[in-house]
Protein backbone atom coordinates (compact mmCIF):
# COMPACT_ATOMS: atom_id res chain seq x y z
CA UNK A 1 0.00 0.00 0.00
CA UNK A 2 2.81 2.39 0.87
CA UNK A 3 4.53 1.76 -2.46
CA UNK A 4 1.26 2.43 -4.30
CA UNK A 5 0.75 5.68 -2.38
CA UNK A 6 4.32 6.77 -3.17
CA UNK A 7 3.76 6.00 -6.86
CA UNK A 8 0.47 7.93 -6.82
CA UNK A 9 2.21 10.86 -5.15
CA UNK A 10 4.85 10.92 -7.92
CA UNK A 11 2.13 10.89 -10.60
CA UNK A 12 0.21 13.70 -8.92
CA UNK A 13 3.38 15.73 -8.51
CA UNK A 14 4.18 15.41 -12.23
CA UNK A 15 0.59 16.27 -13.12
CA UNK A 16 0.71 19.34 -10.87
CA UNK A 17 3.95 20.48 -12.53
CA UNK A 18 2.46 20.14 -15.99
CA UNK A 19 -0.84 21.82 -15.11
CA UNK A 20 0.74 24.68 -13.19
CA UNK A 21 2.98 25.49 -16.18
CA UNK A 22 0.01 25.33 -18.55
CA UNK A 23 -2.07 27.63 -16.30
CA UNK A 24 0.77 30.14 -16.02
CA UNK A 25 1.26 30.19 -19.78
CA UNK A 26 -2.48 30.54 -20.37
CA UNK A 27 -2.64 33.52 -17.99
CA UNK A 28 0.57 34.97 -19.42
CA UNK A 29 -0.81 34.98 -22.96
CA UNK A 30 -2.87 38.15 -22.31
CA UNK A 31 0.06 40.01 -20.76
CA UNK A 32 2.85 38.81 -23.03
CA UNK A 33 2.70 41.71 -25.52
CA UNK A 34 3.08 44.27 -22.72
CA UNK A 35 5.84 42.28 -21.01
CA UNK A 36 7.63 41.86 -24.37
CA UNK A 37 7.57 45.61 -24.96
CA UNK A 38 8.92 46.32 -21.49
CA UNK A 39 11.63 43.67 -21.75
CA UNK A 40 12.70 44.91 -25.18
CA UNK A 41 12.81 48.49 -23.91
CA UNK A 42 15.17 47.37 -21.13
CA UNK A 43 17.18 45.21 -23.54
CA UNK A 44 17.74 48.21 -25.81
CA UNK A 45 19.51 49.92 -22.91
CA UNK A 46 21.98 47.07 -22.38
CA UNK A 47 22.48 44.86 -25.43
CA UNK A 48 22.16 44.80 -29.21
CA UNK A 49 19.31 42.31 -29.56
CA UNK A 50 15.60 42.03 -28.80
CA UNK A 51 13.32 39.12 -27.97
CA UNK A 52 10.17 38.02 -29.77
CA UNK A 53 7.89 35.95 -27.51
CA UNK A 54 4.65 34.17 -28.15
CA UNK A 55 2.59 31.38 -26.65
CA UNK A 56 2.26 28.48 -29.07
CA UNK A 57 0.26 25.28 -28.98
CA UNK A 58 2.36 22.16 -29.31
CA UNK A 59 -0.09 19.32 -29.56
CA UNK A 60 -2.22 19.69 -26.45
CA UNK A 61 0.41 21.69 -24.58
CA UNK A 62 1.06 25.42 -24.41
CA UNK A 63 4.67 26.56 -24.67
CA UNK A 64 6.46 29.88 -24.53
CA UNK A 65 8.37 30.39 -27.77
CA UNK A 66 11.10 32.99 -27.54
CA UNK A 67 13.41 34.06 -30.34
CA UNK A 68 16.43 36.35 -30.29
CA UNK A 69 16.36 39.06 -32.95
CA UNK A 70 19.43 41.04 -33.90
CA UNK A 71 20.66 42.90 -36.96
CA UNK A 72 21.63 39.66 -38.71
CA UNK A 73 18.89 37.12 -38.07
CA UNK A 74 16.36 35.45 -35.81
CA UNK A 75 17.51 32.49 -33.74
CA UNK A 76 16.59 30.42 -30.72
CA UNK A 77 17.00 31.98 -27.27
CA UNK A 78 19.05 28.94 -26.26
CA UNK A 79 21.76 30.31 -28.59
CA UNK A 80 22.36 33.15 -26.11
CA UNK A 81 25.60 33.10 -24.17
CA UNK A 82 25.51 32.66 -20.39
CA UNK A 83 25.90 36.41 -19.86
CA UNK A 84 23.14 37.20 -22.36
CA UNK A 85 20.83 34.74 -20.59
CA UNK A 86 21.65 36.41 -17.28
CA UNK A 87 20.69 39.80 -18.70
CA UNK A 88 17.46 38.40 -20.18
CA UNK A 89 16.44 36.74 -16.89
CA UNK A 90 17.13 39.94 -14.99
CA UNK A 91 15.14 42.03 -17.45
CA UNK A 92 12.26 39.54 -17.31
CA UNK A 93 12.19 40.06 -13.52
CA UNK A 94 12.26 43.84 -13.96
CA UNK A 95 9.44 43.71 -16.52
CA UNK A 96 7.25 41.64 -14.20
CA UNK A 97 8.17 43.88 -11.26
CA UNK A 98 7.32 46.95 -13.33
CA UNK A 99 4.03 45.53 -14.52
CA UNK A 100 2.97 44.39 -11.04
CA UNK A 101 4.30 47.54 -9.31
CA UNK A 102 6.18 45.51 -6.72
CA UNK A 103 7.39 47.46 -3.68
CA UNK A 104 10.63 45.45 -3.34
CA UNK A 105 13.40 44.22 -5.60
CA UNK A 106 16.01 41.81 -4.20
CA UNK A 107 18.90 40.62 -6.38
CA UNK A 108 21.45 38.06 -5.25
CA UNK A 109 24.69 37.94 -7.28
CA UNK A 110 22.60 38.72 -10.36
CA UNK A 111 25.08 40.38 -12.71
CA UNK A 112 28.44 39.31 -11.37
CA UNK A 113 29.40 37.07 -14.29
CA UNK A 114 29.02 39.76 -16.97
CA UNK A 115 31.76 41.74 -18.66
CA UNK A 116 32.53 45.16 -17.16
CA UNK A 117 30.80 47.14 -19.95
CA UNK A 118 27.57 45.13 -19.63
CA UNK A 119 27.72 45.31 -15.82
CA UNK A 120 27.91 49.10 -16.11
CA UNK A 121 24.98 49.30 -18.58
CA UNK A 122 22.81 46.95 -16.54
CA UNK A 123 23.66 48.75 -13.28
CA UNK A 124 22.73 52.11 -14.82
CA UNK A 125 19.47 50.65 -16.09
CA UNK A 126 18.67 49.14 -12.67
CA UNK A 127 19.57 52.42 -10.98
CA UNK A 128 17.16 54.31 -13.26
CA UNK A 129 14.52 51.60 -12.80
CA UNK A 130 14.64 51.90 -9.00
CA UNK A 131 14.73 55.72 -9.01
CA UNK A 132 11.59 55.89 -11.18
CA UNK A 133 9.62 53.84 -8.66
CA UNK A 134 8.86 53.98 -4.99
CA UNK A 135 10.45 50.69 -4.13
CA UNK A 136 13.10 49.23 -1.92
CA UNK A 137 16.10 47.75 -3.72
CA UNK A 138 18.47 45.24 -2.14
CA UNK A 139 21.36 43.36 -3.70
CA UNK A 140 23.99 40.93 -2.57
CA UNK A 141 27.31 41.06 -4.43
CA UNK A 142 30.96 40.25 -4.11
CA UNK A 143 31.81 42.04 -7.36
CA UNK A 144 34.13 45.00 -6.69
CA UNK A 145 33.01 46.85 -9.86
CA UNK A 146 29.39 46.70 -8.76
CA UNK A 147 30.26 47.78 -5.22
CA UNK A 148 32.22 50.77 -6.55
CA UNK A 149 29.35 52.06 -8.71
CA UNK A 150 27.89 54.14 -5.91
CA UNK A 151 24.28 53.26 -6.76
CA UNK A 152 23.44 52.33 -3.19
CA UNK A 153 21.80 54.29 -0.41
CA UNK A 154 23.44 52.08 2.18
CA UNK A 155 25.96 49.25 2.29
CA UNK A 156 26.09 46.46 4.83
CA UNK A 157 29.33 44.52 4.85
CA UNK A 158 29.36 41.04 6.30
CA UNK A 159 32.59 39.35 7.27
CA UNK A 160 33.12 35.64 7.95
CA UNK A 161 33.94 36.49 11.56
CA UNK A 162 30.36 37.80 11.94
CA UNK A 163 29.21 34.16 11.76
CA UNK A 164 31.74 32.71 14.18
CA UNK A 165 30.15 34.16 17.30
How many DSSP E strands? 5
> What is the chain-wise order of helices and strands?
HEEEHEHEH
Give the helix tally.
4
* Order of strands in the sheet with most strands: 1-2-3
Spatial separation of the terminal alpha carbons:
49 Å
Beta-sheet strand percentage?
15-25%
Give the radius of gyration. Answer: 20 Å
Percent helix, as a range, is 40-55%
> Which runs of at least 5 residues are low in confidence (pLDDT < 50)?
none
Q: What's the pLDDT, averaged over the residues?
A: 80
- Taken from the alpha-carbon principal axes, the silhouette is globular
Structural class given helices, strands, pairing? alpha+beta
Largest beta-sheet characterization? 3 strands, antiparallel
Overview of the structural elements:
The protein has 165 residues and is an alpha+beta fold. The chain is built from 4 helices and 5 strands. It has helices spanning 2-46, 82-100, 116-131, 144-147, and strands spanning 50-58, 61-69, 74-76, 104-108, 136-140. The strands form 2 sheets. It has a 3-stranded antiparallel sheet, with helices on one face. It has a two-stranded parallel sheet with strand order 4-5. Helix 1 (2-46) packs across helix 2. The longest helix is centred in the N-terminal third of the chain and has 45 residues, at 2-46. The relative contact order is 0.10. The model has no long low-confidence stretch (mean pLDDT 80).
Topology:
Elements lengths: L1 H45 L3 E9 L2 E9 L4 E3 L5 H19 L3 E5 L7 H16 L4 E5 L3 H4 L18
Parallel strand pairs: 4-5
Antiparallel strand pairs: 1-2, 2-3
What structural keywords apply?
4 helices, alpha+beta, 5 strands, single chain, about 160 residues, three-stranded antiparallel sheet, two-stranded parallel sheet
Amino acid sequence: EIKQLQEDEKKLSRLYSILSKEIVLFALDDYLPVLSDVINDYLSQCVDYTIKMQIVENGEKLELDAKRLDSKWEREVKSLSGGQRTVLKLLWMLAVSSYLHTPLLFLDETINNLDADTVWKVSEMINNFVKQRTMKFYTVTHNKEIQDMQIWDDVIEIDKSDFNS
